Amino acid sequence: MTDRSGGTEAAPKTGRKPRADAQRNRERVLEAARDIFSAGGAGASLEAVARQAGVGIGTLYRHFPTREALYEAVYRREVQQLVQLAVAWRDDPEPVAALRRWVAAFIGFVATKKGMSAALAVAAQSSSKVSLAVMDQIIQALDELLRRAAAAGEIRGDVGAEQMLRAMVGLCYAQDSPDWQDTVRHLSDIFIDGMARSASLPPASKAG
């Protein structure tokens, strides 16, 4: 039966799509959670998320019954957005510029991940299925951008997506200052500059 009370936002048990207002609330919660978790610190509570999203704590729990469910939903949403950005930018006429923008977005993803509590590790990383599927999606997204830039002769072609991701993650976790994202974005630009310069250099002559 259709719920006429207006007192719940849960989807009916008839396979119907969630109501539009319930879906908007869910998206607001995920947006707020990303911002709150990225900032980290003592303010990264579920109450703070609900407050920023403009919903009651009960609404948050109707969509995400546990803290872990919210963490995993934010995590998966961030990954989906990274993949979508790579698809949107794969035909960019300036492939190196597209690569820089994607790397900046990836740094934001790591910021969200860093800002979450230890429960995130339980929710999103303790399951090998989640972790492997997520990593595979991110590697494929970056690989397409790298291959296109290399095919255009704008960067060197011997740096794989997995290698670059390891370098970026290492830079992210090596920084602890409040402005660490700015620092990592600057360092990632230097990294990409090095790849671009290497592509433009003539082959080294062999001795002898």
From TrEMBL:
SUPFAM superfamilies in the record: Homeodomain-like, Tetracyclin repressor-like, C-terminal domain
Q: Does the keyword DNA-binding apply?
A: yes
Query: Which keywords appear in this protein's UniProt record, sorted alphabetically?
Result: DNA-binding, Transcription, Transcription regulation
What Gene3D superfamilies does UniProt report for this protein, alphabetically? Answer: Tetracycline Repressor, domain 2
Annotated region (Disordered), positions in chain: 1-25
Q: Where is the HTH tetR-type domain?
A: 23-82
Please verify whether the record's keywords include Transport. Answer: no
Which sections of the sequence are annotated for DNA binding? 45-64
Name of the protein: TetR/AcrR family transcriptional regulator
